[in-house]
Amino acid sequence: MTTSNDTATDRVTSRHGWQWSSLAAYALPIIFVLLLIIFSLAVPYFATWANFGNVLQRNSIIGIVACGMLLMIITGGFDLSVGAVGAMSSVVAAVVIVQFSMPLGILTALALGLLVGAANGFFIAKIGISPFVTTLATQVLVTGFLFVGTSAQPVYGVPESFTVLGLGRVGPVPIPTIIFAAVALITWGILRFTTLGHYIYIVGGNKAAARLAGINVERVLMTTYALGGFFAAVAGIVLLGQTNIGQPASATDWPLTAIAAVVVGGVPLSGGVGQVWSAVLGTLLLGIIANALNLLGVSPFWQPAVTGAVILVAVGLDSYQRKQRERR
Amino acid sequence: MPKGEAMLLEMRNIRKSFSGVEVLRGVDFSLKPGEIHALVGHNGAGKSTLMKVLGGNYADYEGEISLHGDKIRLLSPRKAIDRGIAIIYQDFSLVPDLSVAHNIALGREPRGRLRGTIGHAILRRRSAKEAERLGIRLPMDASVRSLGVGTQQLTEIVRACSREVRVLVMDEPTARLAPAERELLFSTMRRMADEQGVGIVYISHFLDEVCDLSDRITVMRDGLVVATRPGADYTLDTLAELLVGHEITGREASRAAAPTSDASEALGATQLSVADRPPLDLAVAKGQIVGLAGLVGSGRTRLARALIGDVKADGEIRVGGRRVAHVDPERATKAGLSMVPEDRKTLGLALGATVEANIVVSALGKLLSVLGFVKPGSRPRLAEEMIERFVIRPPDRRKIVGNLSGGNAQKVLLARALGSRPVAMILDQPTAGVDIGAKVELHNQILAAAKEGAGIVVISDDLDELLDLSDQVLVMNGGRLTGSYARSDLTRASLLAAISRS
To answer: What sequence ranges are listed for the domain ABC transporter (chain B) (predicted)?
Structure first.
């Protein structure tokens, strides 16, 4: 008796659950497509290949950062130091390229990014400082070292050929976008095919349960933050490719923009859930809105305000829906 | 009542239902001034509900309550407090970082010179006086966080009694106290009753303590009062019989005899000492189920968490006969030990993840992956297999675990433990809060796992569960193993008596 009752109620809830979750799952793609159509009709020059290439070119860097941010957000944390790590990466790469060689510059920058990320993970997982405080501290620390090391002066002298990484194209596709796609693909592969990826979800879902189930929570967190730092360093090298100048004061807006992209993509900061396409789509959504405003001749000063409103509306819809569902 | 003594409190024919289920089915209860009256009964017997009615927590109770002969309706906690009824619940409601004096005065701080300020000196003096009146000595300026549990308990009592108190209810006040702290509490209770005429209702699971301390004892079972008699009329055994009900003769052993003694060891511990408790030894053979009985706070869960390396402990732990060095949950799991933690929501499951993700967690690193990559298709395969084996409803591996019923969520948890093909398992309250159908299925799976050769430790508050599953029952008390019984030597009443000795 009990069992059949159970089954009946479960079937009802599962049908409702399916309806809601499927709607919620496709809300963002639907909004994205709708915006694409509206902008194409209403905004002059929006629907041109040149413009699309431009949007991709401008947003690939944030997209790369957002992929790392996604991993950290799924574990229930985030990283405020990605901007500082990006700036460090571009400055260090510039210095080493000028002094020694291009491959060594890239490798050094990537290794340093990995190191700072691992340090974040160490303080968060082993010492137990919250992600907010840890990454706030490393952000300030890294920026400080950078200013001391460069006397806050930009680093010039990177050969012109290096700009291929930031400005070059393969056919119509910008090279930064190819790098972004590769990073997104790697992130997808980690989450889908590796034990690490599966553990990231469980650790984000319930740390105590993950530990008792035999997962090495500390190692998972350290690896995740190391990856986040690594991706930020990749983004820093692409940035150097765009500007050809190692600028210690650059990239300060990366952390919050990347977090915004991920949450607009529908990933809650509470952890345990999230997919790569959320980070990709969130990045592009913010990108096309900025681009449309630009083409419409709206002052760039308006852009932060619009971004803020988009975050509130997109995340608000999602959260409100979730709250309604929980109440039933 | 004898001598026609005036009653302080009388509750007559009290009834209370929760969504159609009657939890109190016409209960009579009385309290004399200066009396210590113990209220005993199983979990779910209705003790706490009765006391919550008395505390004014349920406005929709039926029945009659009179205090000093005046009929009263207790419709809100405020009303109960105003009538001089104070209730100290199991979980303290103290603010850890405030001083003892401030906690005693919480919510009625005296005004300082200016409106909106607190007169700290007056407050401290007043709190000290209130403690002194009860004959309790407390470090007034120490923060509550820095105190032992016993002193916290006394702080709570002073606070509860700082208003005019005529009825004091204490819900399991001694569960977390050391023996010396217990004595202090009892003498305080005695003094309050004798010198100030306070009537004390005292809920406890420690039957020997109850027998020693109480003027009268009321036994509740299934929402009814079974007996109310003077404390001296009871013995430990008669009390245990009343608690359990008519069924005193032992049940037939419901499972086949324990495996032969030459079966090799699945889980073992030697000189394992958790926190500052005395060291203990433990051995579970392959195919054997060992029940771990004891009261709440007796140290069973702590022992379980020590075995899997979640809390620090000294001594040796063996899984499958091999020593696990520097044990932590990861190493223990690799060695073949799985755990089903007691609280599936906070310690067991990732509620936002799917059934599949939860089921495969423990097996992933060990059985389902190569060099960090998950073998294609292995995840859904294991999930489907477990869903079928455990009859998880709905049979959908993509379902979010948080949306499952309690029984099905618990099946997911047990499926996870079994999925890693453990040598030994520790199951902490494996059927808490699940319906009877799921419970039977879970029991069958546990028995099947033992038959397949796993050594299993079952921790449970449910005596029937322990008797149904176990080959051997160990009793814990105060962090120590205080008894070991073969299943065939136990009845429900004898087991209850064994765990109820403080």
So the answer is: 9-247, 258-501
